[in-house]
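[job 0417] fold request received: BTB domain-containing protein
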Amino acid sequence: MADGSDSSDNGPIHHPSLYFPDGDIIFSVLNEGRPTLLRVHRLVLAHFSLSFRDILSIPSHSEANEMKEGVPVVSMLDPYIDFVGLINALYSPETLPLRDLERRPNRGPVTIRGICALAKKYQVDSVLKRIAGRLEAIWPATLRQYVAARGTFTSDVGYVVSHLMWARVEHAHPEPALAIRLAMEVGARSVLSAAFYRLAISDPSVDWDDSEPEEMDTLSARWGILDQTDWTRYNYGKDDLAIRFQELPLDTYEQEVPSGRCGDEDGCFSAIKKLRAFHRGQLNIGFARQPDIIGRTLTLHEEIDKGGFCFYCKPTLQVIVSSFLKDVWDDLSEIFGLTE
Ligand SMILES: [Zn+2]
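[job 0417] inference complete; emitting structure tokens
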């Protein structure tokens, strides 16, 4: 045949785009039982990967190796899709399927994970760095970034202003389990707090691949790809968050108000009673199952804003609530056992 492919059913075939006529090494990878040949350039491989260099130390002409068209053939045992994905990413970086990491990728097989595993195996740092960079760009590293989609922070006092957009902002964040697995692989640790938090507030009975993209009320995750350590972190962290919300310091508020500062003692007394009842009402069974402590604390912040408090008590209480929120965020890595 003109292209050199074997026409028999099980003979090797050329990869449609990764078979360069001037390539000086051929990889043979099984694709559903059939060898597929990738003819590539040693120079490119050596440039991107330290460990490919070992493979490339094979002499160009050697009787010990299988040769094809004067070029040595190396059989690779890696999964076809992943190997082709990695080689493709070397020649055309834009083909790296980073959109698997995004908020609403199409459902279906995730290829970035297998490519990432191979990039690690063959020490292709450029690919690992691109994955890390993308994860860091789409996952919030700070409370400010996390809440940004929900509302805004006042810059001076640092607490959350009211009239927040209640626009299901958790959906602004991508699926967390894949992010966790990849972040662990590529060392993008700054995304782990937010990703584990997002996992903790997901519905454990709904799998990402089974939920419809338009089901905006359900927070799902790819539960099946978590490993044992992830599960331990998830379980302990989730329990910790549920308990933590009970510790919001509202009970001692009256004692903390300096005498003479409150502008309406009767009104504020009854308002704080109502606020406490509201807080207790949020500690229901649903909360323990998906303990969205950030969301609930922001709701409380809004309740304070809605009325009943004097000009002194309102901002004072909002600062208490905001500092609580900040402490929770700062402690997330500890809550999920991510500190080393
Ligand atoms: Zn007051």
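[job 0417] notes: The pocket of zinc ion is lined by residues 262-264, 268, 309-310, 312-313 (CB under 6 Å). Strands lie at 13-19, 25-31, 34-40, 67-68, 71-76.
[job 0417] exit 0
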